[in-house]
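Annotated sample (chain length 173).
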Amino acid sequence: MGAAVSLNVAVRHPDRVRALVLTRPAWVDKPDPPNLRTCAVAARLIRQQLPPDRARELFVETPEYLALAAESEPSARSMLSQFDEPRALDASVRLERIPADTPIRDLKVVRNIKVPTMVIACRPDAMHPFEYAEILAREIPGAIFREVASKITEEARHTADMKRTLDEFVRGL
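Output written by the structure step:
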């Protein structure tokens, strides 16, 4: 969700942004994308203040979780970790409200971004579709697009790729 917040700030407050990095965007200009529906389901269960084990049991039975697990078991496991967060109740607001909104209302507004921009994506990533990164990289003038190793299947390589890619971008500013 960090890419969404960063994109929103860059569009609404361009005077506050000197460079922009959008890593693994989860959606673009439509609220409540299918890839993030598990977030709202998890948030609703967390707000019920059930014991974490019970909330997890209910969550893994939902159609949203089952669909995510069928597509990406690592992504599904990542969503399960939301129930173990020390401040899970506070975080539930973020899980529900941010995806229900949209980073931008109209894709055309990103064409006004005038700062150096890098968009980073990886495959496979059920919650951060590669196509969203491609769209943003194509629409933001002069944006650099980089594909890195999957955070889900090659975490160590992903971390190394991210460090190298970000270092190169920052050195080029």
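Annotation: Helices lie at 2-12, 37-47, 52-59, 63-71, 73-80, 88-100, 130-139, 155-171.
Annotation: The chain has a mean pLDDT of 93.
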